[in-house]
Amino acid sequence: MTESCLARRLGNFLDLSDNERAFIESMENTPRQMKKGEVLVSKGAKTNKLYVVKWGWSIVSAREVTGRRAILRTYLPGEVIGLAEIGSPVAPHDIFMSTDGAVCPFPRASLGRIYEQAPRLAALLTAISSAEQVILRELLLAVGRMPAEDRLILFLLTLLDRLSVAGAETSSRFHVPLSQSEIGDALCLTSVYVSRLFTKLRREGQIELEDRHIRLQDRAGLEERVGYAPLATRIDTSWFSKARVRPD
């Protein structure tokens, strides 16, 4: 049986027990195939489900008053859609697929069962959700304060770390299926400007770019340049309870 992508992701931070792995895999037993551009969640709809991204990328988007689209975040394989919105009875934004993919829906009520029966998993999902909020703050700060080139570098470094946690990438070369327009909407830049930035970084030898595969030539140097902290890979688990899954 193929390992659960969520279990693989969580396994970066905890030595999961067999019972915990089985619990996680039960959340992914009804995969739903999705097409690029297909809407997963519509703004204003009731939110009674969460989704594990099995493969593919999805995007959270909103429209500004001017009508321009803003991309608020991406979801990668092994990440859980809906945790950030768990306190809202309706969806605050649209969520759609940026690529073909598959998601595994599970009832929102299942979260209560996780807290009751698998407290370590509940603690880890809470900690990861917290780290994701900090990452979004850093990107928000970058959009408001950093030069455009540094914004793009920070964005790429963040994606690479998140992909490494998902087990999708193990080097400084990684696949980014987002269009330049989507990257621009995430960084408050036009697609033309994003294209110019990629051309500049490639010409300067800071990245290689081929068929939407990007290689960071001097990852350490780029991290130092933008003051990057790998928040996606640093989760404090010291406060978690011991491994156990209570029976139903």
Explain the overall architecture.
With 248 residues, the protein is of the alpha+beta class. The protein has a single domain, classed as Jelly Rolls (Sandwich). Helices cover 39% and strands 20% of the residues. The chain contains eight helices and eleven strands. The protein has helices at 5-10, 18-26, 110-117, 119-145, 148-165, 180-187, 191-203, 219-226; strands at residues 32-34, 39-41, 49-55, 58-63, 69-75, 80-81, 94-97, 101-107, 173-175, 207-210, 213-216. The strands form three sheets. The protein has a four-stranded antiparallel beta sheet, with no helix packed on it. Helix 3 (110-117) crosses helix 4 (119-145), helix 4 runs antiparallel to helix 5 (148-165) and helix 6 (180-187) crosses helix 7. It is globular.
Topology (elements, then pairings):
Blueprint: H1 5-10, H2 18-26, E1 32-34, E2 39-41, E3 49-55, E4 58-63, E5 69-75, E6 80-81, E7 94-97, E8 101-107, H3 110-117, H4 119-145, H5 148-165, E9 173-175, H6 180-187, H7 191-203, E10 207-210, E11 213-216, H8 219-226
Antiparallel strand pairs: 1-8, 2-7, 3-6, 3-8, 4-5, 4-7, 9-11, 10-11
Helix pairs in contact: 3-4, 4-5, 5-8, 6-7
Summarize the structure.
The protein is of the alpha+beta class and 248 residues long. The protein is built from eight helices and eleven strands.
CATH superfamily: Jelly Rolls
Number of domains: 1
Please count the beta strands (DSSP E, at least 2 residues each). Answer: 11
Could you say what the CATH topology is called?
Jelly Rolls
Numbering strands along the chain, what is their spatial order in the largest sheet?
1-8-3-6
Helix content: 25-40%
